[in-house]
Amino acid sequence: MAAGAADEGRTRTLGELGLAAPDRREARITGISVDSRTVRPGHLFAALPGSRIHGAEFVTYALRMQAAAVLTDAAGAARVRDAVAAAGVPLVVAEDPRQALAYAAALWFEAQPETIVAVTGTNGKTSVASFTRQIWAHLGAQSASLGTLGVEGAFAAPSGHTTPEPVALHALLARMAQAGVTHLAMEASSHGLDQRRLDGVRMQAGAFTNLSQDHLDYHGDMDSYLQAKLGLWARVLPEDATAVVNLDDPASDAVIATCRARGHRLLGVGRREDARLRILAQRPEATGQLLRLEWDRTPHTVQLSLIGAFQADNVALAAGLAIATGSDPGAVFGVLGRLETVRGRMQHVATRRNGAPVFVDYAHTPAALATALQALRPHVIGRLVVVFGAGGDRDRGKRPMMGKAAADHADVVYVTDDNPRTEEAGEIRAAIVQGCPEANVVGDRAEAILRAVDALQAGDALLIAGKGHETGQVVGDTVYPFDDAEQASIAVAALDGVP
Questions:
Q1: Taking the model in full, what pTM does it have?
Q2: CA atoms within 13 A on the CB side of 399
Q3: CA distance 221 to 159
Q4: Which of 34, 128, 135, 175 could lock 119 by a disulfide, CB 3.0 to 4.6 Å apart?
Q5: What is the C-alpha separation between 475 and 498, in angstroms, rounded?
Q6: What SS3 class is residue 495?
Q7: pLDDT at 1
């Protein structure tokens, strides 16, 4: 049900979906489509404005497939009014057709898990959502997480986007609810929030992780990027919801101001004295860390099997979300030691015979790369080696910044290809090297990983950054099989003579 949705003979009127044509003409709707190719007789077709083409271009085909009504904006209506009138079907014109579609999808599918939370921010969304799901599961709830890694937990399904479009999302929510999922932690991407994909989802809490440069190819500037994130509290969360906010990030002030304006309850997390869930101390250990937290002035000590200081922030936010949605604080702190690392997030994937470990992480922004390297540093007594690149057809301004982050925090740097997409890979690497002139430049990612693994001496550690959980490399319009974790294991096996 990704682009179209029907429900075995069930129908709804436009009014029952919260929609109305200017002439008040009604229609019996049998499903919803945003892709004209999935339109079936009786469907509502949503002709949405896009970055390159307007959905109004496909209305004629949708009508030929017997769409029962069309939803669009004023610009779309001006282009299709005559065709829709000739077909004799209602034309619904909305100031914000994406939001109207989201609410209509919510009303069409109806069912959602009882408890839903969302996580937004530049970095950490996947980990916080996964940790929240794991906490709930350890406390006995049928829980799932939805985001970059698809749907995981008590219900599993792939997902093409971090935040699916509304029809696909609400179809998925209904399937989860019908399968018995009661608790869901979702990632809320800036694209998804800006495009109203989460509107209509009934949430109890929303968490903010941090804000740093990313996705400016889409948002244009940092203020627009922040405003998209703030949409979670300004628009999506109901007024009686709880905001779980990382107080240590400078952008938290804007989040808090938005939440106060809406009347949200605030649960501050971090190292500041005014944090209700406060991180008091951390001690890195060989395979994890010892964490001391304070909840309402009562301290709790937790042994985490998670590498990286930043994981304390992610765990604390997840604990805050669980507590905000009714879990007993003592029980929550009691299960934190059982949390497992998220695939592709500071994941230990191989170890050389001399003891040097290899980690894979999704860090693909300057701040995330710096954070990941700084997090590894206390666990390394030798050199810290990093392999990374930058994606093509994305924010170009961050490339030299990523190079500088590597130069500032790693001892040995290998710059390679990430997902070049349609850009010239050599130009991407050259932009990165502006920030790290001493870097080793190896275009082929597999060769770069092999060279970096070969360079590891006793006491060293390697971070392969940028692609994390991804199992493909996009070159041009082709996706080639490529898995950083697999390549690291192959390199270690080849160099250490493991059969």
A1: 0.84
A2: 26
A3: 28
A4: 128
A5: 31
A6: helix
A7: 39
C-alpha angle with apex 94: 88 to 99, nearest 5 degrees?
A: 125
User: What share of the chain has pLDDT > 90, as a percent?
Assistant: 82
Q: Which H or E run contains 192?
A: helix 190-194
Looking only at the bridges linking them, the beta strands covering 31-33 and 28-29 are unpaired
Phi, psi (degrees; rounded to nearest 5) at 82: -65, -45
Give me the helices (H) in 422-468, please: 425-433, 445-455
Cα 371 from Cα 350, distance rounded (Å): 21
Q: How far is the C-alpha of 321 from the C-alpha of 143, rounded, in Å?
A: 13
* Cross-strand partners of 323: none
Q: What are the backbone angles phi and psi of residue 257, rounded to the nearest 5°?
A: -60, -40
**E-assigned strand segments in 39-191:** 43-46, 69-72, 91-93, 115-120, 143-147, 150-153, 183-187
Q: Exposed (0-12), middle (13-18) or buried (19+): which is 222, by Cβ within 10 Å? A: middle
Helices 366-376 & 398-409 angle (0-180, nearest 10): 10
Mean per-residue pLDDT for 389-395? 93
pLDDT higher than 70, residue 275: yes
Q: Using the predicted structure, report yes or no on whether residue 239 has a pLDDT greater than 50.
A: yes
In what side-by-side order are the strands of the sheet with 357-361?
Answer: 347-351, 357-361, 461-465, 384-388, 412-415, 440-441
Encoding tokens for residue 143?
């829980």
Q: Are strands 472-475 and 478-481 parallel, antiparallel or unpaired?
A: antiparallel
Nearby residues of 11 by Cβ (< 8 Å), 6 or more positions away: 28, 29, 30, 42
Half-sphere exposure of 190 (CA within 13 A, CB side): 25
Helices 366-376 & 310-324 angle (0-180, nearest 10): 110
| CA-based nearest residue to 326, from 426, 183, 438 | 183
